[in-house]
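pasting for the record
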Amino acid sequence: MHLLKQIFDFYINASIHVALAVCALSYITLEQLNIFYDENLLFFIFFASITGYNFVKYFGLARFHHRSLANWLRIIQLFSLICFGFMIFFLLQLERNTLIIVAILALITLFYATPFLPKNLFMDNKYDLRSVSGLKVYVIALVWALATVLLPVLNSEHLFNFDVTLLIVQRYLYVIVLILPFDIHDLHYDSLKLATIPQRIGIRNTKIFGFTLLLAFLLLEFFKDDLDEKQLFTTAIITVVTGIFIGFSNKDNGRYYSAFLVEGLPVFWLILLLVFNQFFF
C-alpha cells in the first residue's frame, strides 16, 4: 500500500495528472471544432505541460537547494528532463505557424517562475509574475486557453472564426473556475501578498464568483454559430458537476480533492463528450 501511495504521489507531484487534464481540454477542442486528430500535437502538449509545470513548481527549490535535493526531487528533475526531450521531438513535428504561439507560451512560463521584474515593486525577494498580487490565476487561465484552443486551431490551419473566439473565452473562464478550489485550499499556506481571490473576497463570495463564471461559460455556448446538441448537453453536465465541486470546496479539503479530483474534471469532460459522440444523437 505504501508503494502505491508513492506511485500515486509521484503521478501528482510530477505533473502527469495536470498534463492529462491539459491534453483532455486540447482533445475537446479537436472534437468541438471537428478538427482532425493529431497525435503529435497532443503528445507535444502533454510533455510540454509536464516540463512547464515542473519548471514552475520546482525551479526555486532546484536553484537554491541543488546540493541537498531530496531523492524525490532528483527523480522528478530527471523525469522532467526526459519529458523535455520528447517535447522538443514532437515540437519539430508541428506546423511552422504554431511556433509563434509556442514561443509566447514558453516566455510566459519562463517569466512566471523566474525573477525579472524591478525589485522596488516588491516587499520581498520574489520578482516573478507569480508574485504579482492577484495575477496568478489569470496568467494560468490565459496559458491554458491559448494552449488548448489556439494551438490546435493554428496547427490544423482551421479557420479562426467567431466560434473559436468564444471557445477561447469559455476555456479561459473554465480554467479560472478550476483554480478556485486550489486557492481556497491554499488559504492556510499562501502569503497574503499573493492576493488570491479567496483572500480578497472570502470563501463564500469566491464560490459565488465561480458559479457566475460557470453560468457565463454555459451561456456562451448558445451564441455559437454552429450550435451542436451533443456539445451543449455535455457542456451543461460538466458545468453542473464542476459547480458541485466548487460548492464543496473548503480550506480543510485534502490535497487530493483539488490536485486529483478537480484537476481530473477535464478528463471526465472528454470521456463524456466521446461517449455522447459515439452512442447518442
